[in-house]
Amino acid sequence: MNHCPLITNVALMNNTFLQNHLCVYLPTYTVQLYQAVRAPQRTVGQNVHSQTLLEEAEPNPQPHHVNVTAWAARPRNTCQGDARGPRQDHHSARPPRRSWETRYSSQGEPARAPREAPPRRPGPAPPPDPTRQQDRVQPGHAPVGNGLSLSLSVAWRLDDCGLTEMRCKDISSALQANPSLTELSLCTNELGDAGVHLVLQGLQSPTCKIRKLSLQNCCLTKTGCGVLPDMLRSMPTLRELYLNDNPLGDAGLQLLCSGLLDPQCHLEKLQVEYCNLTAASCESLASALRAKRHFKELAVSNNELGEAGVRVLCRGLVDSACQLEVLKLENCGLTSASCEDLCGVVASKPSLQELDLGDNKLGDQGIATLCPRLLHPSCQIRVLWLWDCDITTAGCRDLCRVLRAKESLKEMSLAGNALGDEGARLLCESLLEPACQLQSLWVKSCSFTAASCQHFSSMLTRNTCLVELQLSNNKLGDCGVQQLCQGLSQPGAALQVLWLGDCDVANSGCASLASVLLVNRSLRELDLSNNCMGEEGILRLMESVEQPGCVLEQLVLYDIYWSEEMDNSLRALEGRKPSLRVIF
Question: pTM of the prediction?
Answer without folding.
Answer: 0.79
